[in-house]
Specification:
25% of the residues lie in helices and 28% in strands. It has helices at 92-106, 110-113, 117-124, 134-145, 174-187, 231-245, 248-253, 269-276, 332-339, 403-407, 412-421, and strands at 2-4, 9-13, 17-24, 27-35, 42-45, 48-54, 60-65, 71-76, 154-157, 160-162, 193-198, 203-207, 213-218, 256-260, 263-264, 284-291, 305-309, 321-325, 328-329, 347-351, 361-365, 371-375, 377-380, 396-397. By secondary structure, the chain is of the alpha+beta class. The strands form five sheets. Strands 4-3-2-1-8-7-6-5 form an eight-stranded antiparallel beta sheet. Helix 8 runs parallel beside helix 9 (332-339). The termini are far apart.
């Protein structure tokens, strides 16, 4: 049995697999079960592979997820707390208390968001009683989280969910992606050669007209194989894409590469690091990751764990990059953006600030069957800065897919990127 440092979880491990228990000061609820994998110490979890390994101290271990970066630190415990063996309460007030406490103990950004979470409890707890309906409780939870404007915060009840992003931005979805992709192909890639879609249409590459510039659009960092949703399948497809695009002949001839993340729904941070490893000849630290780990003190964290970029063995492009971002660049799209900030060589960000959500999402189950999604991690630059809330700012500001840009058939960010990469005649 293991207790995690941060994350509010206890894990029990036996020959069958790994069982999660989600804990707060007022609750212990059974979470996900991950069956044992093909290799000792590995476990299958929704297409990902979890790896548990002992450290030099037998009382401690590390848990890794192949689709994520960093590790969870674990300490051995003797037994489950008594609360973990009791059946959950069906009283709506118990669900409220677990919901509120989960944020109170894990959410890192109340101060930055200007939200007094205790005042939120004082306002909404009296509205909940033993006869509160599920729909009414869902509405209460939705009103509680709305002021956070955090795209990694969500209330879920089956197919119903509620969450909001940063004001003035649009959280990406299939409709926006299809609209933007059609616009980009018709306007920006007019006259381009070798345009090709990969990864179930989520990645597009083309050689731009006018000389030696490449364009790479990435709409997601997962979902690359519709028949296999595992991280391993995504990685295999991504390698196929990169080997096809970054051929030795092309990398020798390119004088600049535009990477377009302006509509990117996130996914696997590890895939972003994998791409970054194709964009450098020099090892460097992409960022460091830390976790809130004191339920009583939001300023306490685990020691930052560096996430390193090591040059890949395959073909690499190491020349100038213009990275297009906007408010619909979210989650893993943002951690990839952050991974290129200290990339050796010339990288310029063009467009608008990213959405401002970086952490892996904690899914916390409630006694009534609903669930809350929330972040508890921070991704730090080498100077200790985070970009949560405000997003990563561009080096060069341009409008991104505004109504006016669409109406006038204009893509100012793309045009600026081309101008920055293409040398003057």
């Amino acid at each position: 049995m293991w207790r995690s440092d941060g994350y509010g979880t206890i894990l029990t491990v036996d020959a069958r697999g790994l069982q999660e228990y989600q804990t707060t000061a007022v609750s212990c609820l059974k979470g996900d079960f991950s069956p044992a994998g093909a290799t000792q110490g590995t476990y299958e979890s929704d297409g990902d592979v979890l790896t548990l390994r002992l450290t030099s101290d037998p009382g401690h271990a590390l848990l890794g997820d192949d689709s994520a970066v960093g590790h969870r630190r674990l300490a051995r415990i003797a037994s489950l707390p008594a609360a973990c063996t009791r059946p959950p309460s069906s009283d709506p007030r118990a669900a409220f208390d677990v919901f509120w406490q989960s944020f109170q103990e894990n959410y890192p950004f109340f101060a930055a968001k200007g939200v007094d979470w205790r005042a939120v409890r004082d306002r909404y707890r009296p509205l909940v009683h033993e006869d509160t309906t599920r729909a009414a409780l869902f509405d209460v939870f939705s009103r509680m989280i709305e002021p956070l404007h955090d795209a990694h915060v969500l209330v879920q009840d089956g197919d119903r969910h509620y969450g909001v992003g940063r004001p003035g931005t649009t959280v990406p979805g299939p409709e926006l992606d299809a609209k933007v992709k059609k616009f980009v192909i018709a306007r920006d890639l007019k006259g381009a050669t070798g345009r090709r879609d990969f990864a179930d249409g989520l990645i597009t590459y083309a050689d731009l007209a006018g000389g030696n510039l490449g364009y790479l659009r990435i709409a997601d960092f997962d979902g690359y194989n519709r028949d296999d949703d595992s991280y391993a399948a995504d990685l295999t497809e991504l390698d196929r894409v990169l080997n096809t695009v970054l051929t030795p002949a092309r990398t020798r001839s390119l004088r600049g590469l535009i990477i377009d993340l302006r509509v990117n729904g996130g996914g696997s941070d590890a895939l972003g690091i994998h791409i970054a490893e194709r964009l450098t000849d020099t090892p460097y630290v992409a960022y460091s990751k830390r976790v809130r780990d004191d339920p009583a003190d939001p300023a306490r964290h685990t020691p930052p764990e560096p996430v390193r970029v090591t040059p890949a063995r395959g073909p690499r492009y190491t020349g100038p990059i213009a990275l297009l971002t906007g408010g619909s660049t979210i989650s893993a799209g943002e951690t990839f953006t952050q991974a290129l900030i200290d990339r050796p060589g010339r990288t310029v960000r063009v467009g608008q600030p990213t959405q401002g959500v970086f952490s892996d999402i904690m899914v916390r189950y409630l006694p009534d069957g609903m669930a809350a999604w929330l972040p508890n991690e921070e991704f730090l630059t080498r100077t200790g800065r985070t970009f949560d809330g405000a997003g990563i700012p561009p080096n060069v500001t341009e409008p991104v897919f505004t109504d006016e840009e669409f109406a006038k058939d204009r893509d100012s960010a793309f045009d600026r990127a081309v101008a920055l990469l293409r040398p003057a005649p």
